[in-house]
Amino acid sequence: MSPPPASDMNSTTASNDKLKSSAFRVGLGDVTPNNLGQLKRLNTVLFPVTYTVSFYKDVLEVGEFAKIIYFNDICVGGVCCRKEQTPGSTSSQDLYIATLGVLAPYRRLGLGSKLLDHILEHAQLPPTTGPKISKVYLHVQKHNKEALDFYEKRGFKAVEEFPNYYPQLEETGALKLEKVLLGDD
């Protein structure tokens, strides 16, 4: 999963401009048993938390809410979500983004936005079965300004602080960010 040699990257990548779809091959892929190892490796590199076997088993069951993103056929990021029943409601559910990340050399190319846009688009579709999704939420380390800015620019709001959310880490604090989805009732 190393980045392509500099000779294979055009000046758009080198200058960290926004991704131009005609300049690169970018694609989203389903998470399958055949590429689950790639997702595990990505998450090990991207996040300071170790995810369990049951986490990855569940990821295989969420369909459009778990994706891997490829840049010039290289696996460089991914997103994993889970649906949860909205407290006090039988007609809606929440979508929790457990992980969303892109390897550092590929950031600021629009890849994280592409992953998040995919999740938000599918969260707003009318469900074929079960309740609709009323909000999307996640937790971000309190000191991770880059991630906080990323989500806030996309309409997420900090709604709660958890001072000891990551007790196994040096920086334990997290913020809960959420985006309420507006949809037809």
How would you portray this structure in words?
The chain has helices spanning 11-14, 36-46, 53-59, 111-123, 145-152; strands spanning 26-30, 66-71, 74-85, 92-102, 132-141, 157-162, 174-180. It has 185 residues and is an alpha+beta fold. It starts with 10 loop residues before the first helix and ends in a 5-residue tail after the last strand. Residues 1-17 have low confidence and may be disordered. Residues 26-182 form the N-acetyltransferase domain. GO terms for molecular function: acyltransferase activity, transferring groups other than amino-acyl groups. Keywords: Acyltransferase, Transferase. This is N-alpha-acetyltransferase 50.
Task: Give keywords.
acyltransferase activity, transferring groups other than amino-acyl groups; acyltransferase; 185 residues; seven-stranded mixed beta sheet; alpha+beta; 7 strands; 5 helices
Classify the beta-strand content into a percent band: 25-35%
Overall 3D form: globular
Low-confidence stretches: 1-17
Helix content: 10-25%
- Derived from helix and strand composition plus strand pairing, the structural class reads alpha+beta
Give the terminus-to-terminus CA distance. 44 Å
User: How many strands, which pairing sense, and closed or not: the largest β-sheet?
Assistant: 7 strands, mixed
SSE sequence, one letter per element = HEHHEEEHEHEE
DSSP, total strands: 7
